[in-house]
Each structure stands twice: as structure tokens, then as C-alpha cells.
């Protein structure tokens, strides 16, 4: 509707996925929505980026070389705490078991394949929820944009 305004949270997002096409598509869509992205092709490089750069949200694939999504989530929580929202993408058919294995780390699971627009909406939902968490401060200021 003309004249309506919505808040868009601009954030620094780490994408960890060994499929370069998927990482590129996510990065393109998130950049288009004003977010800044950093990409890593394996869990070890992603962990290094998570530690050395300030990020507001992490998206990780479940199956990656050197450190899988579960090991990556565990390492992030051990080294950086639980303030950073995490979203694990997975094409595994046992999604419920995956959700249960990641529940103790406070990690959300999102199925592959995905529609980029739906993924962006989920990311914005996670970012908005994290703003309500005491102690969370996004890397970049919130903007108000017209639709």
C-alpha cells in the first residue's frame, strides 16, 4: 500500500555454505535487502570469520567440509555465547531429529530448497526477535524504508 512504511533491520550476516551457488544467491538477496554479508565455504573458515568479525546473524549449511553445521553451531556457542541468532539450512529428510539435536544450542532449522524471499523473511524475523534480547546490539543501525 502506498504511504506505508516498514522497518528493515540492516545487519552483518555470515553465510557458511560449501555450495557457492547457494551462498551467492543468499548473499545477493540479503545484500539487496540492505544487509552486509560475509561468506565461507567450510565450517572452519566460517568459525574464523565468526570470531574475527562482528556478525549479527549466522546462516550455515548442515553438511560442510572440515566442520559440519552441528560442530560449527557447537563451536560458535562455546566461543561466542548465545546472543548471535543462527539458522541452519538442511536438505536432510530427518528434519525433526535435526531440530532436536540443535535445540540445546538455540539454533533454528530451515529446510532446503528454499525460496529466497521466504528465507529473507525468516532472517528478518530472527533479527527482530534478537533485538528484543537484552544485550543484543546490531552491527548497523535500523533504517525505516518505504516498501
User: What oligomeric assembly is this protein in?
Assistant: single chain
- How many structural domains? 1
The CATH homologous superfamily corresponds to Response regulator
Order of helices and strands: EEHEHEHEHEHE
Write down how many β-strands occur, each being a DSSP E stretch of 2 or more residues. 7
Please bin the fraction of helical residues. Answer: 40-55%
Largest sheet: 5 strands, parallel
State the name of the first-level CATH class: Alpha Beta
Sheet/helix structural class? alpha/beta
Characterization of this structure:
By secondary structure, the chain is α/β, with parallel strands linked by helices. It has a single domain (8-131), classed as 3-Layer(aba) Sandwich (Rossmann fold). The chain has five helices and seven strands; from the N terminus they run E-E-H-E-H-E-H-E-H-E-H-E. It has helices at residues 20-32, 43-52, 69-80, 95-103, 116-131, and strands at residues 6-9, 12-16, 36-40, 57-61, 86-90, 107-111, 142-145. A five-stranded parallel beta sheet has the order 3-2-4-5-6, with helices on both faces. A two-stranded antiparallel sheet has the order 1-7. Helix 1 packs across helix 5 and helix 2 runs parallel beside helix 3. The chain is globular. Mean pLDDT is 80; it is low at 1-6 and 134-147.
Amino acid at each position: 500500500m502506498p504511504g506505508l512504511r516498514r522497518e528493515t533491520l540492516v545487519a552483518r550476516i555470515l553465510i557458511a555454505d560449501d555450495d557457492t551457488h547457494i551462498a551467492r544467491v543468499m548473499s545477493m538477496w540479503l545484500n539487496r535487502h540492505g544487509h552486509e554479508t560475509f561468506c565461507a565455504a567450510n565450517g572452519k573458515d566460517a568459525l574464523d570469520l565468526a570470531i574475527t568479525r562482528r556478525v549479527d546473524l549466522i546462516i550455515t549449511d548442515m553438511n560442510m567440509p572440515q566442520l559440519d553445521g552441528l560442530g560449527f553451531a557447537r563451536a560458535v556457542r562455546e566461543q561466542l555465547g548465545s546472543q548471535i541468532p543462527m539458522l541452519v539450512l538442511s536438505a536432510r529428510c530427518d528434519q525433526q531429529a535435526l531440530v532436536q539435536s540443535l535445540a540445546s544450542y538455540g539454533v533454528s532449522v530451515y529446510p532446503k530448497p528454499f525460496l529466497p524471499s521466504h528465507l529473507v523473511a525468516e532472517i528478518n524475523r530472527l533479527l527482530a526477535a534478537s533485538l528484543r534480547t537484552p544485550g543484543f546490539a546490531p552491527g548497523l543501525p535500523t533504517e525505516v524504508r518505504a516498501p
